[in-house]
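Input.
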Amino acid sequence: MKFKFIKSRKSMAIILSIIAVSCGTERSSVTGWAYNDPDNGGFEKMPYEEQETGPGLVLIEGGSFSMGRNEDDVTYEWNNVPRRVTVSSFYMDETEVSNFSYLEYLWWTNRVFGPTFPDIYYKALPDTLVWREKLAYNEPFVEYYLRHPSYRDYPVVGINWLQANEFCAWRTDRVNEFILIREGLLSHIPNPSDQDYFSTEAYLSGKWQGQLKQKLPSFDEQNPERDVKMEDGIFLPKYRLPTEAEWEYAAYGLIGNTVGERITDRRIYPWNGHGVRNSDDKYIGQIAANFVRGAGDLMGTAGFLNDNADVTAPVYSYWPNDYGLYNMAGNVSEWVMDVYRASTAQDADEFRPFRGNVFVTQVKDSTDGSISTNIDGPVFQKFLHKVNKPGAHGVSQPTEEVTDSVLTILTTDAQNYKNAPSDGKSDIPGRVKWREVNSAISSDNLDERRNYKTSDYISYLDGDVNSSLYYKEGEEAYSDKANSLMYEYAKTSLINDKARVYKGGSWRDRAYWLNPGTRRYLDQRQATAYLGFRCAMVRVGSPVGLGK
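Output.
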């Protein structure tokens, strides 16, 4: 829904009276008081239809499906045991995030934070060295794949899980900023700084440093104008990575195989049939995805390349599934939100299953109780400001006054910063601060809760002390916790709380991995040349929309 707001005080009075006429006669069904009436305080009921579809997104109508393995488990990992679950409706990107889209993000990040916090830009850069192999010549991809216009519509790779989440956060703010500008509420700032760039969370928390071009009219006589609120429905929800269940559900696209409430045909791939070639008479025999057909065969023979791609292919290649999503099998594998555990299928809830919850709350100022934001940016950057001076091309150079002790601090902090944020939290200036809920803080009221008693449930039922194979009874369990863990990372396992799931096959995989039910994992701080991502967004309100 688009809102049309007027640009003068006189026009504000007009629109105020229009809303009052159209909505003022509507009364509360529980109290009888009229909405939008200045005489009783002006409790507002703003006109609203339904959630606007964000740029690049497709509505995925939710439902029930059998999640997990639907063919032979050739790896014998038993990590995707079939189970029926329900996924709510949500939105997902039509394609993988492309190089050009990610370059837009890098350009904006460098423009806003480059002069003051250049490390934020450097941290966002993809790892182009993922293309290198010990016994292969891939240097052209290292040099050209990200930035050359020939690859602008190809999926971005070399992105770790943390970087993908930062892209989602940036996209949320830029889309909501555009909506405010489109509706005439916000002036376009061609060159925002790290102090006044638009942040949705900071704005809703009253901590945004910028200023609206025009505020909304208010029915409160004491405050005739007000900021936009969540209750207005103008802002879109956050862009994010899809959950594993959402990604798998969307990939199958079984909406095309339903008659009434009956699924007529199950699928091994995002298309019908047991093969990997198109069965449509118009395209019969053509490869339906970008993958490895056999030993040493990544694209077929000259004159008839089977998938027409040596590495990745443009994001709009091949045929979309019945939801209209491209490359849900092949091209690149994709990050999802979940932390990996082999038994998640058995442990997770049957409604919106997900492993990875770390419950957080906004940090509040101890003096006035207001929401806190990141003011100074990364710790490492603050050290650099103290000991560096601008050099050629804006590159900082160490000053002569740098002492051994400062260098020690810098070296230690640089190593910490290289690995941060390991918990997925952002330290970008201007963003709202978040902290994990804590039973020791009385305001969190965890002792009164029934549905959770702590913040971190990543290892719940699989990896915590109680689920350990070496679990010891009583106090001994916690006094010897290190020896009671199920997953001994770097000793007997590569699984820990930073192991994130990625789904789908890639240009380097055989057909087995094209099955949406397969699952693999990688440390959230690592990246590869065959792993990309796409964004998702929650659907609020009706799962199908008012049109249905």
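The chain is about 20% helix and 15% strand.
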